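re the bet — no i am not wrong, look at it urself. input seq straight from the record:
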Amino acid sequence: MKMGIVGLPNVGKSTLFNAITKAGAECANYPFCTIEPNVGIVPVPDERLEELAKIYHPEKVTHAVIEFVDIAGLVKGASHGEGLGNKFLSHIREVDSIVEVVRCFENSNIVHVDGSIDPIRDIETINLELILADIETVQKRLEGTEKKLKADKKYQIEIDLLKKIKACLEEGKAARTLSLNEEEQKIIKDSYLLTMKPVLYIANVSEEQLENAYEDDNVKKVCEYAKLENAEVIPLCVKIEEELASLDEEEQKEMLGALGLKESGLDKVVKASYNLLGLMSFLTAGEPEVRAWTIRRGTKAPQAAGKIHSDIERGFIRAEIVSYSDLIENGSLNTVKEKGLMRSEGKDYVMQDGDVVLFRFNV
């Protein structure tokens, strides 16, 4: 699953990417220093794996992962090819959801592309370009579908949907603000609309703003805007996160303690990104490996088994499942079994986050 990190030039976008991935994407105080998208694979923080490792003492512990793509900064006119607009839009089209970095801090040494700090203006600049690109996409599809209608009336449903989406976009609203039923979502899915992608806003604040970030006027504005899209806002100081990322684990704990924080902002971003995509983890545990496996919410047991190996899905017999909390509370699988807390589930079982599973299969 890919998260695209976007934002205007010089808002802290590439610095955030560096901190998340420790990949050292080029970062400079001028627009377009990120031209080709940098890509980083990041483990999803999951304290449950460390607790299971204390029980099983495995040879290795493997976290679920999520992919972050650092996309070139955008300017007005991108939908018409201005700046690096065409590349920016094509790279966004390839990601599953968007992490939008918004600058909420003042710093005279870091140039803002529009000359002043105004987070809502910045958000609307990006959203407008995505909306304009989507209007063009919807209009082209609408014209093609209207031609098909002459031969088959079934296309009327699609035409009505496209007109509804176009009207929403022309009002300056993202397509994700519409409530679409399951059938409508299937119809529009292959159009890959940019504003249909879920979004997470990162309010980049200064160290001084961080302690009471949600009381900051700029952050409040971002939160109010995000409510309209049912989007989440995470305030963080990107410069602090970059410094934290350069430290070892013990030093990170010390610095977080000094700042009065329980976890890094980056951990919050990765977890929120995972949830934004409708993902969750089931767990497998044994001496060779304790591991988290990524699935979509609502996935049934055989399809979850297929994440491990296609043969397990093909030959699925049953899933032997214990909840993570029951396993930790009782300290061992044997105790769980003795207490009757191990369940045997069949093909229709919908997996739950934190299920510790052993799949039985025969091929």
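see?? Confidence is low (pLDDT under 50) at residues 23-35. told u. also The CA atoms of residues 68 and 225 lie 24 Å apart. so pay up
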